[in-house]
Amino acid sequence: xxxxxxxxxxxxxxxxxxxxxxxxxxxxxxxxxxxxxxxxxxxxxxxxxxxxxxxxxxxxxxxxxxxxxxxxxxxxxxxxxxxxxxxxxxxxxxxxxxxxxxxxxxxxxxxxxxxxxxxxxxxxxxxxxxxxxxxxxxxxxx
Length: 142
Prior knowledge:
By secondary structure, the chain is mainly beta. It has 1 helix and 8 strands; from the N terminus they run E-E-H-E-E-E-E-E-E. The longest helix is centred in the first third of the chain and has 18 residues, at 33-50.
């Protein structure tokens, strides 16, 4: 199965500039979401070790992990994010134009190893949907 890991990071401020924010996506082929998360973690660590793109980054966050079961004929939006202000809070969504038989989205939430967003997950009772939000922990720390 194909998995897409959508990640974000913030760099430390420099003397010339404030902190910057970035996003990137990695792909992995795996049997299940747990195996995919391990492969994605290894890819992020490899990116840090072998490339200079994450040189000034100390923490990487997994914003979404998308399991692509089959590709919708017309394609799909796998991830979207917006920073409404200069703060580090954001609004994100994924999986537009994909049915349950085609894709599933996973989030890492506090006290919830990987709740599947699209199936069997009641957002009305989800702590993460309240106005105060929740503290996100890094997926990888360097």
